[in-house]
# Entry
Amino acid sequence: MSLTHKKIILGVTGGIAAYKAAELCRLLVKAGAEVRVVMTAAAQQFVTPLTFQALSGQPVLTSLWEAASGDGMEHIHLSRTADLLLVAPASADFLARLAHGRADDLLTTLCLARTCPLAVAPALNREMWAAAATQRNLEQLHADDVNVLGPATGEQACGEIGLGRMLEASEIALALGALLASGPLVGKRVLITAGPTFEAIDPVRGLTNRSSGKMGYAVAQAAAEAGAAVCLVSGPTCLAPPAGVRRIDVQSAAEMRAAVLAELPCNVFIAVAAVADYRVDAAATQKIKKSAAPLTLQLIASPDILAEVAALPDAPFCVGFAAETERLDDYAEAKRLRKNLPLLVGNLAQDTLGQDTAELVLFDALGRHPLPRADKLTQARAVIHHVLTLLN
# Structure
């Protein structure tokens, strides 16, 4: 999406990922944005201000005591004409200070005094990201309407592998395009479920399914590209959330139901997740020991999250997904009518599960609308386009 004439403040904090911020600055300027860079003292230990000055074509601000504006109020003036303040990389220390309202240098003071939206792209060691304190800080930032972009999973500078590395510059630039978009879903809240659920049998075993979560994550990206504020409630997957999408991790169907209900109201609810239809009535608290005797499990139905949301008096526009192995048209349309859905997306499970492409059929009140096989992001964009058609 175009960033032409957008005014972006790029805050850079201390961390090895600061080198990615230089590439990000270059990409934003190339996309037509006007970029002003603010660096912390720690950031200058990794990349020099001269680098960012050359890339942005603008003086770089490094101190609260600089008088670039003439009255010493740069921390007030800078955001007044900006479209977005982005901090990338955002270190663990910076996230903590931001969550607690600290204002002890130029960047944190600017964040507190801003009048424009704020986004952060975290860059942390995997253990620092998973730490309880960091997760508490992130909850507060979400509550304060701070857009958290990423992080991604993969190899980190410390040599460890896991969740915490900063998104690539191109991914962040794409996310900013969505945040600053004037797309058809701007101002709308879209709630999406994705992936499988895991229903415990005992502490080490459970019931699940083969859903990879790829379709749900693609739908989340497509909705974000259309300008929506997207919350993704995800069962266990190995996927990184799309840039600009807020993710809530759950395990069981009951946890997914609780997370969905807690995120209401929303404008659109898209239930892509392959929720387990049954769960064990009473999961064992200790590991069930193997024996030669047959094992019988008492299964009970899991909550039908989509049906419950669709039946609410103030229900959002609800979209369901149905993966069948036969008689797709009959079963999918019956499910749509039974749950009173304006749109249901159907597919044959054997042709889709675990794959990067999908062949879908959209079912609505006007009939069936087949989508020929394509990659899942292309299909997701087609689904969002059809949702917009029905909403309008």
